[in-house]
Write a structure and sequence with these properties.
The structure holds three protein chains of three kinds. Helix content of chain B is 71%, strand content 3%. By secondary structure, chain B is mainly alpha-helical. Chain B has a two-stranded antiparallel ribbon. Mean pLDDT of chain C is 87; it is low at 302-310. Classes of the chains: A mainly beta, B mainly alpha, C alpha/beta.
C-alpha cells in the first residue's frame, strides 16, 4: 500500500540497455530513463476493487512532476485514492544506495522476464525488499513487488500498448493488503436485507485490494504548476 | 367517498397541529444544513473514521447536496414517525375527544367508508409531508451545496454513487419512505380507534416504533432470524437499500443497479401487508365500537 | 302513525345493564319527552337510535324501516344534537355547517347554509371559528347542523345542558316552533321534569334502563290526583286532629315533618282552611301533580334529589 504512488512514476522501458547483464547497470538505465520525463498529465480510467469500497469506475486526471510529485484528481466526481506516504517512492528507491541481485528468470504476461531483486543498503529503512520483472527483449519493467515492514507485499503490474513510444504504460494494476483500513463502526443504521452476512474471517486479514488504472492519454513534459499538487 | 375524503382533508389541513410537522421538518432540515455548511468536514471525518489516514478524502466534493440529503434522511426518517403519529393518532381519538365523533357516526355514511376516507386522508398527509421533506432536504440542499457523487457509509463499507445515478434512487427512496411511514400511520390509526383522546395512540405508536427500532438495530443473533424479519421497523430502513449498488466480480460498483432489489420488494410487500392488516383491524374494531364519547 | 318503534331493546356493557327490555313508540308529530335521571339509560337509548351504540338485543324501526338494514336511508332523515353540541373548533361556523350538510347526503347550496345560520342568529359570525363561540352559540350552531338537511325526526339529547336561563328559554321556544309550525317529530331527553312537561306531548320515564311510565302528558298530569305536602311542627298530632274529619281520607302518609295528601287540585284552598281551623300550624304547603310525585318517588332513594323529602 505505502508504495502505491511510487509506481505512477515513470517506470520506464529500458531501450538502451539491451544485452546488459549486470543488474546494477540495468538499474542505472532505469534511473536515467526516469530523468527524461520531467512531468506528465494523463487522463485515465480508475477502477477500484477493494471489498469495502463499492465504487464505480471513474475518469480521473493523473499529474506527475519530477522528482516525486503525484496527484490523482477526479474533477467531476469523487474517487477515494489511497494516500501517498512519500517515504519510499520508487524514485527514492533508485536514488538511494541499494544492492541489485540477479534472481533468475520468469514469465509475465506470457513474456520471458529477468528478475532483479533490490536490497536497500539502509537496513532500518521502511522498504525491506523490491523485486523487478524486466522484459529484456523490449526492455520494459512488467511487474514490481515491494515488501515493506508495515504493510507486507504490494504488487504492481504494468501493461504496455499504444503508449509504448513514450515509454509509459497503458494500464497499471496495483494489488495490496487491505488490513490497514479500519472502518468506523456503529455510525449507521443499516438496512439488514436478511441476506447472510460475510463472516469476519472473510473481511479480516490477507484480503487483497486492487486498483486498476487505464491510461487514455498522456501529455508529457508540458510543464505543470506546483499548485496542482497542493 | 370522494366527498368524505375532501372533508377529512379539510379537517387535517385546517388543524394547526398538522403544520407542526411541516414546521418541525423544515426546522430540523435547516439546522442540519446550517451545521453541515459550516462544519461539514467534521461530520465527514466522523463518517469515514480512521479511513482518512489511509485514503485521500476529497471533502469539498463529498459535501454536496445529494450527500447532505442522505444525511438528513438518515437522521430524520427515524423521527418522522412521531410527526405521522401526531396526525394519524388523532384521526379518530381526536374526534372522540372533541365530541364530533358521535355526530360524524350518526350521519348517513357507512363507518367503513368513514374509516377509509380518514385513512386515505392520513396517507395523503404522509405523502405530502414526505414531498415537503423531499423538497426541503433534496432541492434546498442541492441549491445550497450543489450536486456531485454521493458517498454512502455502511457498516462494512463505503460506497460511491455517481451523481447521474442518484436522482432516481431518491425518488424511489421517497416513495418507499412514504410506504414505510404509511405503516406507522396505519398503526397509529388502529390505536386511535381504541382511545378517547389522541395522546394515548400517539404515545403508544411512538413507543412501539422505538421498541421495535431498538430490536431491529440490536445485534443479537437470537433475534436476527426470529424476531427481526417480522418487525415492520426492520423493513422501514429498506429505503437505504436503494442506495446500495451491485458490485461486479472484482468488487467494482455497477452504476444503475441495486444490490438486493428482491429484499426491498419483500420489505415493501411486508409493509403493505402490515398496512392492510392494521387498517382492516381498525375498520373491524370501529364497526363494532359503541361510540360513548 | 308510529314514526319510531322500539321493541324489547336491551344494552349490556359487560355486567352493567344500561337499557333493560325497553319498548316504546313515538308517533308522527309528537314531541316525545324522554325523562330519567342521569345514568338512567336515556343517552344509551338515544345512541342506539342513532346507531352509535349497538343493541345487545331488541329491535328498532324508524319511518317503518329496520334501522339495522336501512341505516343510511333512515339517518339521512334524522337530525340530532347529542349532549354538548361539539363541533370542529378550528373551523368556522359556516365550514362546520357545510361539512355536516355534505355528510347528510343531500345537496345544500350556499344560500341555504347562510339562511340557516341567519335563522339561528349566527349570520354575522359565520366566518368566525367555533372556538370563539359561547356555549349558547355553539348550541345554536349544533341545532343548525341538526336541521340543515330538513330531517323528519329530530333527536335532542339533554339540549339545555350548560345553557343559561335565556338559552334554555330559547331552546324551549325552538322546540315548540319546530313542532307547531314545521310539524317535525322530536325526541327530547332531559333529567328535569319541568323541561319535559313544558314542551312534550307524550313522555316516557325510565329508571335503571327500565320503562317506568309512558303516556300523554295530559293524562300523566291529571290534576285530580294532585299531591299536597303540608309541613307542620308535629305531624303525628296533626294527623290525630284530622282523623275525625273528612280530610283524613285524602291523607296518604305522615313523615317526620309533613302530612302528605292526594286530592283534586280545586280542594287545596278548603284543605288549607280546615288546617287553620284545626289550629294546626302550617309552615308550608306545596302542591305537586302526580307525575312529579311519581318521578320523585322514583328518585327518592337517591341522594342528589333528596330536596323534597325528609
Amino acid at each position: 500500500m505505502k508504495t502505491f504512488f511510487s509506481f505512477l512514476f515513470p517506470l520506464v522501458l529500458l531501450t538502451t540497455v539491451a544485452g546488459a547483464q549486470d543488474p546494477s547497470a540495468l538499474m542505472k538505465q532505469i534511473r536515467d530513463r526516469m530523468e527524461k520525463i520531467s512531468d506528465y498529465e494523463a487522463g485515465a480510467r480508475f477502477k477500484t476493487e477493494i471489498s469495502f469500497l463499492k465504487v464505480p469506475d471513474a475518469l480521473v486526471k493523473i499529474y506527475y512532476k519530477k522528482p516525486d510529485k503525484i496527484k490523482i484528481k477526479n474533477e467531476n466526481g469523487i474517487s477515494l485514492v489511497p494516500k501517498e506516504t512519500g517515504s519510499i517512492s520508487l524514485y527514492s528507491l533508485v536514488n538511494s544506495p541499494y544492492q541489485a541481485l540477479d534472481a533468475g528468470t520468469g514469465t509475465i504476461q506470457g513474456v520471458p522476464v529477468r528478475i532483479i531483486k533490490l536490497l536497500p543498503s539502509d537496513e532500518n529503512g521502511e522498504l525491506v525488499l523490491a523485486t523487478l520483472y524486466i522484459d529484456t527483449r523490449r526492455m520494459l519493467v512488467l511487474k514490481a513487488k515491494t515488501t515493506t515492514r508495515e504493510s507486507g507485499t504490494d504488487e504492481v503490474e504494468l501493461f504496455y500498448g499504444k503508449f509504448l513510444q513514450t515509454g509509459l504504460p497503458d494500464k497499471i494494476i496495483f494489488s495490496f493488503n487491505t488490513q490497514d483500513f479500519k472502518l468506523p463502526k456503529g455510525v449507521t443504521f443499516d438496512y439488514d436485507d436478511g441476506s447472510e452476512k460475510k463472516k469476519p474471517a472473510e473481511t479480516g486479514k490477507n484480503q487483497r485490494g486492487k486498483i486498476e488504472i487505464t491510461f487514455l492519454d498522456y501529455s508529457i513534459n508540458k510543464g505543470i504548476s506546483d499548485s496542482v499538487f497542493k | 367517498m370522494w366527498q368524505l375524503l375532501q372533508i377529512e382533508l379539510l379537517k387535517i389541513f385546517r388543524k394547526p397541529r398538522t403544520y407542526i410537522s411541516f414546521g418541525a421538518i423544515a426546522l430540523m432540515v435547516i439546522i442540519i444544513q446550517v451545521a453541515l455548511k459550516f462544519d461539514g468536514r467534521s461530520y465527514i471525518e466522523f463518517i469515514v473514521g480512521s479511513l482518512k489516514d489511509s485514503l485521500e478524502i476529497p471533502y469539498a466534493h463529498i459535501l454536496n447536496g445529494y450527500f447532505v440529503c442522505f444525511i438528513i434522511l438518515n437522521l430524520l426518517l427515524i423521527h418522522i414517525p412521531l410527526l405521522i403519529a401526531l396526525v394519524a393518532g388523532d384521526s379518530i381519538a381526536g374526534e372522540a375527544n372533541m365530541g364530533t365523533l358521535r355526530l360524524l357516526a350518526s350521519k348517513p355514511v357507512s363507518r367503513t367508508g368513514l374509516m377509509l376516507a380518514k385513512f386515505m386522508a392520513t396517507v395523503i398527509y404522509t405523502a405530502l409531508l414526505l414531498a415537503w421533506l423531499a423538497f426541503i432536504a433534496l432541492l434546498l440542499s442541492v441549491l445550497i451545496f450543489g450536486t456531485n457523487d454521493i458517498l454512502i457509509a455502511r457498516n462494512d463499507s463505503l460506497e460511491i454513487i455517481r451523481s447521474n445515478d442518484v436522482l432516481w434512487r431518491y425518488l424511489a427512496a421517497f416513495a418507499f419512505a412514504t410506504l414505510a411511514l404509511t405503516t406507522v400511520a396505519a398503526l397509529a390509526f388502529l390505536l386511535s380507534v381504541f382511545a378517547e383522546n389522541s395522546i394515548g395512540p400517539i404515545v403508544s405508536t411512538i413507543s412501539i416504533v422505538i421498541v421495535f427500532t431498538i430490536l431491529s438495530e440490536m445485534q443479537i443473533p437470537l433475534y436476527d432470524r426470529t424476531v427481526k424479519p417480522f418487525l415492520f421497523t426492520s423493513h422501514m430502513l429498506a429505503w437505504k437499500g436503494l442506495f446500495y449498488c451491485q458490485v461486479d466480480a472484482g468488487g467494482t460498483a455497477i452504476p444503475g443497479t441495486i444490490e438486493n432489489i428482491h429484499a426491498i420488494a419483500k420489505s415493501s410487500g411486508i409493509l403493505i401487508l402490515y398496512i392492510i392488516s392494521f387498517v382492516s383491524a381498525a375498520i373491524f374494531v370501529f364497526n363494532r365500537k359503541d361510540i360513548l364519547s | 302513525m308510529a314514526l319510531v318503534t322500539v321493541s324489547r331493546l336491551t344494552k349490556k356493557f359487560r355486567t352493567h345493564v344500561a337499557v333493560d327490555d325497553l319498548s316504546f313508540s313515538v308517533n308522527e308529530g309528537d314531541v316525545y319527552g324522554f325523562l330519567g335521571q342521569n345514568g338512567a339509560g336515556k343517552s344509551t337509548t338515544i345512541r342506539m337510535l342513532l346507531t352509535l351504540v349497538t343493541p345487545t338485543a331488541g329491535h328498532i324501526e324508524i319511518f317503518g324501516l329496520d334501522l339495522k338494514k336501512e341505516r343510511k336511508k333512515i339517518l339521512s332523515q334524522v337530525g340530532a344534537v347529542i349532549e354538548k353540541p361539539d363541533l370542529y373548533k378550528y373551523l368556522s361556523a359556516y365550514e362546520n355547517l357545510s361539512l355536516f350538510a355534505r355528510m347528510s347526503g343531500t345537496k345544500i347550496g350556499k344560500k341555504e347554509l347562510f339562511a340557516q345560520l341567519d335563522m339561528v342568529g349566527l349570520g354575522d359570525r359565520r366566518d368566525d371559528k367555533v372556538k370563539t363561540f359561547s356555549q349558547g352559540m355553539k348550541q345554536r350552531l349544533g341545532i343548525a347542523v341538526s336541521l340543515i338537511h330538513n330531517p323528519r325526526l329530530i333527536i335532542l339529547d339533554e339540549p339545555t345542558n350548560g345553557l343559561d336561563p335565556q338559552g334554555i328559554a330559547d331552546m324551549r321556544n325552538l322546540i315548540l316552533h319546530l313542532s307547531r309550525h314545521l310539524h317535525k317529530t322530536i325526541i327530547v331527553s332531559s333529567h328535569l321534569l319541568y323541561e319535559i312537561e313544558q314542551v312534550s306531548t307524550r313522555m316516557l320515564i325510565i329508571d335503571e334502563g327500565k320503562k317506568m311510565v309512558e303516556g300523554s302528558v295530559a293524562t300523566l298530569m291529571d290534576p285530580s290526583k294532585t299531591l299536597v305536602e303540608a309541613e307542620v311542627p308535629d305531624p303525628g298530632k296533626a294527623a290525630n286532629l284530622l282523623e275525625p274529619t273528612s280530610w283524613f281520607q285524602y291523607l296518604q302518609k305522615t313523615t317526620n315533618h309533613t302530612l302528605v295528601f292526594q286530592l283534586p287540585k280545586e280542594l287545596i284552598p278548603d284543605l288549607n282552611r280546615e288546617l287553620v281551623q284545626l289550629q294546626i300550624d302550617v309552615l308550608s304547603l306545596q302542591a305537586k301533580n302526580s307525575l312529579e310525585a311519581y318521578f320523585l318517588s322514583l328518585t327518592r332513594t337517591k341522594q342528589h334529589v333528596a330536596a323534597f323529602t325528609d
